[in-house]
């Protein structure tokens, strides 16, 4: 009986240690981005708009075919490729190339596929993260909020247009799009213990692009 109890206790400690390490690794990819910093961005954006240096929506379309993310050979899985910033949460998240299990244990991952692109290609960019590490506060994001992706010396600002919950097998989430779109995905319910059965989706549209 004592051996069984000891075995259960050891197993519990190992599991706790595993998830503790996983949480610690992911937390290293999250930083505080103050409202003061994002307000400075807004001042720069206002100046850029007044100087007509921001990208207009009618300039986002191009006759050149988009380079889908699976065609990139610049990055290897797990490479640091940019930063996701959610001003309303005052949080910034280091973003890595790929959305495999190992990468998502480090932080936010950029989904790589034949249906998605990097932000500069102005099609569909998908970022994923674990609900119990980097995306613990994602439920506080509302429609109309700003979401920013920094990639390749540019700052891509999106406006949240739609939030919904869906099945993990929903094939309509990760698809090619003709308009510049950012999708954030995580498991749902956000406070679920164990493997969450659904997916939480936040979809945004690009509103402007500026130099960092």
UniProtKB/TrEMBL annotation:
It comes from the Bacteria. The active site is at 130 (proton donor/acceptor), 187 (acyl-thioester intermediate). Coiled coil: none annotated. GO terms for molecular function: hydrolase activity. InterPro entries: Sortase, Sortase_D, Sortase_D_1, Sortase_dom-sf. Keywords: Hydrolase. CDD domains: Sortase_D_1 (cd05828). SUPFAM superfamilies: Sortase. The keyword Transmembrane helix does not apply. Its EC number is 3.4.22.70. Pfam families: Sortase. The keyword Hydrolase applies. Gene3D superfamilies: Sortase. This is Sortase A. It comes from Geomicrobium halophilum.
């Amino acid at each position: 009986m004592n051996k069984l109890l000891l075995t259960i206790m050891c197993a519990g400690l190992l599991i706790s240690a595993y998830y503790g390490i996983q949480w610690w690794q992911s937390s290293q990819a999250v930083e505080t981005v103050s409202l003061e910093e994002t307000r400075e961005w807004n001042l720069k954006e206002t100046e850029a708009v007044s100087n007509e240096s921001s990208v207009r929506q009618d300039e986002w379309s191009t006759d050149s075919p988009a380079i889908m993310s699976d065609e990139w050979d610049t990055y290897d899985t797990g490479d640091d490729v940019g930063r996701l910033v959610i001003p309303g949460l005052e949080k910034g998240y280091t973003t890595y190339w790929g959305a495999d299990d190992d990468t998502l244990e480090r932080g936010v991952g950029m989904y790589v596929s034949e249906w998605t692109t990097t932000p500069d290609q102005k099609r569909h960019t998908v970022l994923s993260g674990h609900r119990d590490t980097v995306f613990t506060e994602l439920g506080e994001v509302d429609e109309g909020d700003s979401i920013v992706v920094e990639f390749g010396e540019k700052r891509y600002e999106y406006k949240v247009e739609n939030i919904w919950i869906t099945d993990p097998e929903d094939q309509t989430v990760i698809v090619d799009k003709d308009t510049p779109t950012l999708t954030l995905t995580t498991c749902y319910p956000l406070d679920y213990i164990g493997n969450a059965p659904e997916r939480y989706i936040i979809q945004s549209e690009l509103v402007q692009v500026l130099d960092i």
